[in-house]
Amino acid sequence: MYQPYPSAGGQVPEPQRPEPPASVLNAVKLMYAGAAVSAISLIVSLSTIGSLRNTIRSRDPSYTQTQIHSAEVVVVAFAVIVGLISVGLWVWMASANKAGKNWARITASVFFGLNTLGVLAIFRQAEPVLSRLITLVIWLVGLAAIIMLWRRVSGEYFAAQQRR
Description:
Order of helices and strands: HHHHHH
Strand content: under 5%
Number of strands: 0
Number of helices: 6
Number of domains: 1
Distance between the termini: 39 Å
Largest sheet: none
Helix content: over 70%
């Protein structure tokens, strides 16, 4: 009799991937929250475009209307690109860290370090209070996620995934 699939026996089932510990799951949730706050930050930036023209004009009154418009386009394009990249990086890091990729834990830490430098630079400039507040919230979310990723139980999970 013909059997299209081999019957049981002899084959060892593939080991199940262990469930991430609570610290990694909490870090992943924080990373998704970071993506959400980054998206909100982008929306807030886009909602303040109306004041952008006045800001550009006050910084350099000699600009023509064409130069002001060009500066507006550059600023808006930059904000949209950086905002979308930021949201994408949060989601990518959440997914990769949940899967136990040790490189993702290291990469997330590097991104957090770069974000810290960016926060320090932003707080040296004249920024609206809302912008500073959102920046600080994003930084705090990142800090909490990094702390969760580098807990001992998280390290054991990443080491176990690396051995697989």
